[in-house]
What we know:
The protein contains four helices and nine strands, in the order H-E-E-H-E-E-E-H-H-E-E-E-E. The protein has about 170 residues and is of the alpha+beta class. A hairpin with a 2-residue loop joins strand 3 (about 55-65) and strand 4.
Amino acid sequence: LSCIYPYIAVLFIKNGAVIKNGIVYAEIPFGLFAVIFICAYSVILLFTKLIKIKKKTYCISFFHNGSSLGTTALYDSGNLLSDGRKSVIVVEWNVIKQLLGMENYEELYTHIDSMQLKILPFRALDKDVGTAVVFYADKIHIKENGNTFYKVPVGIINNSISSGYHALIGKEYI
């Protein structure tokens, strides 16, 4: 693409332009330069605003065995983790442990049968393959859209997601 820029420049500036080693040398009147600069800047600004991805966060409440807990979740369009039927909401252990009444992440593995937990492998963009321990929340509620879902798979991970949010929610729940 960069090889066509000199030829485009020659089309606009016909008087005395010289191309040497892929660089265009030309005398450009200040007014023309200002117009080209403003147009180029406007196009770049427009495209950056069009393709800019906004991070949309949601207040989400989890309900399980008579307890409830709220946290902030980020809409993650790349969250494809599924239990085979539904999209899994990924939550940090440090947040969800209060809802489950456990202190240590390792305790989850001793309750696999009694709580009907599943272990799902996943791969994050910046990490190697990990595992999420999945339980089924009785229900979740999304404050922003008022949606409530029942028997939702919630994947617990033993590391931090981000400083601004503590869960990842997929398109199915938005």
